Amino acid sequence: MPRILIVDDHPIFRMGMEELLNQEEDFSVCAVAEDISSARKALKDMYPDMAIVDISLAQDNGLDLVKEIAGGKTPIPVLVLSMHDESVWAERAIRSGARGYVMKKEASETIIFAIRNILNGKIHVSSTMMSYLLDKFQVNPDCQGAPTTEILTDRELEVFRLIGRGLSTREISARMNLSIKTIGTYRDRIKQKLCLKSAVELTRRAVIWTEKECFGDSSAEDVGKFPTDF
Predict the structure, then answer these.
(1) Which residues contact 88 (CB under 8 A, 6 or more apart)?
(2) Which CATH number goes with the domain that contains 83?
(3) What is the pLDDT of residue 132?
(4) How many other C-beta atoms can be found within 10 angstroms of the C-beta atom of residue 179?
(5) Quick check: 113 and 149 in contact, CB under 8 A?
(6) Angle subtended by helix axes 11-22 and 108-119, to nearest 10
(7) β partners of residue 71
(8) Is residue 107 domain-shared with residue 192, that is, in the same domain?
(9) How far is residue 104's CA from residue 146's CA, in Å, rounded to a whole number?
(10) Are residues 123 and 24 in the same domain?
(11) How many Cβ atoms sit within 10 Å of the Cβ of residue 154?
(12) How far is residue 169's CA from residue 148's CA, in Å, rounded to a whole number?
């Protein structure tokens, strides 16, 4: 019977997922973890056949764990299960080595179906996301437009997301376990890639993007209420 590792930093969600999955007859949960460090230990001690990983793991980025698992000596399939919008994160998760992406708002039946698909060697994303990924194979050289967050690296996008959540450079530094200077470098790269001229423009763009990702189409009316002292 396939054994599954759950990696999520919310205790109640971990408990609920463990109970949900253990009700199934064709797989079971062998371990749970709240961050990359505890996930590494579980991978070493419990030898799971599959991992379910969230993107936001307290001080960690779950995609770093996905890359680590995919690039290890004994890789196992990974399903990314996250609250973050699939239109932004699903492709990045697949590129990082995940075999599937499901948003937490989906029904439990969808999650179970995704797990079975992945254990059977398939890749699982929503039909909408699959259509989008297939469309990307048809390159249109005449398609031009303003730079989007797709051109940001995973680490740059994480900094961008935290800026949008209102964190200062110092707070992002502590959150990501990186130096303030490194975060400053990431900020400069993001501004350059997105053609933004100032910290105010960066903050506004990040806030609007973050609100859209979390709540749908939305906008920030008062940029003054967001930190710009970078």
Answers:
(1) 149, 157, 213
(2) 3.40.50.2300
(3) 76
(4) 10
(5) no
(6) 70
(7) none
(8) no
(9) 30
(10) yes
(11) 17
(12) 22
Residue 81 token pair: 């299960």
Q: Tell me which DSSP letter residue 82 carries.
A: E
Q: What is the spatial distance between Cα 64 and Cα 126, in angstroms, rounded to a whole number?
A: 23
Is 188 inside a domain boundary?
A: yes
- Residue 207 forms part of a structural domain: yes
Q: Are residues 157 and 128 in the same domain?
A: no
Based on the fold, state whether residues 180 and 104 are members of the same structural domain: no
pTM beyond cutoff 0.85: no
The Cα 71–Cα 31 span in angstroms is 21
Residue 71's domain comprises 3-135
Indicate the length of the chain as a whole number: 230
Q: What is the pLDDT along the chain (230 residues), one digit of tens a residue?
A: 999 999 999 999 999 999 999 999 999 999 999 999 999 999 999 999 999 999 988 888 899 999 999 998 889 999 999 998 888 889 889 989 999 999 999 999 999 999 999 999 999 999 888 887 777 655 444 444 445 677 888 889 999 989 998 999 999 999 999 999 999 999 998 988 888 888 888 998 888 888 877 655 433 333 333 333 33
167 and 108 in one domain? no
CA distance 105 to 170: 32
Task: Return the CATH number at 155.
Answer: 1.10.10.10
Classify residue 78: in a domain, yes or no: yes
In the chain, the number of structural domains is 2
